[in-house]
Amino acid sequence: MGGRLTRVFRTFNVESRARREISKEKPTPAPRHPTSRLDELADHPEIQEEIYRKDDRLLTLLKDVYVESRDPPVQVKVGGGEHLPCKQEEKRLTKLGNLGDLDVKKVPKGKISIVEALTLLNNHKLHPQIWTAEKIAVEYSLELKEVNSLLEFFIPFAVQEFPKETKKAI
């Protein structure tokens, strides 16, 4: 019902509204900047001639320029095309993991895995006197500043189960 009503208003007097819009005075475009008029260059042959003329002084200066490049001597590496890393990272074994083959086995020193992060946050939450920032830093080979930031800004979720009587009250 609503579609029919809107269609009536939309199609009402369409032709006269279209003629009125077409017969309106067209707005004049904004003036262009003088540098954007490329057709003016064609009107002045001296400018065209200046553009395409070769400058002998510049050509002689260009001919005096001489560039010589030498490649460094190629050194052949002994041992074939093996790709060896420049800096060997120290790795440490992870503390926990219950995913078996999917677990991360080695982590670079100064970093921790997700499982370790959740474990140390939970340990600190449950026993803050035992799991201090200093002990965590030593245990997981981390910097004390980073451990303090981790303990300050990341808090693990606590799962709480409500008794059935409380659920009905909620």
From TrEMBL:
Share an example GO biological-process annotation for this protein: mitochondrial respiratory chain complex I assembly
Compositional bias of type Basic and acidic residues: which residue ranges?
16-27
Among Pfam families, the record links this protein to:
UPF0240 (PF06784)
Q: Which InterPro entries match?
A: NDUFAF4
Q: Name one GO cellular component term.
A: mitochondrion
Which segment of the chain is annotated as a signal peptide?
Answer: none
Which intervals of the chain are annotated as region Disordered? 16-44
| Subunit comment | Binds calmodulin. Interacts with NDUFAF3.
Family, as annotated:
Belongs to the NDUFAF4 family.
**The name this protein goes by in its record:** NADH dehydrogenase [ubiquinone] 1 alpha subcomplex assembly factor 4
Q: Which organism is it from?
A: Stercorarius parasiticus (Parasitic jaeger)
The taxonomic lineage of its organism, from the top, reads:
Eukaryota, Metazoa, Chordata, Craniata, Vertebrata
Name the gene that codes for it. Answer: Ndufaf4
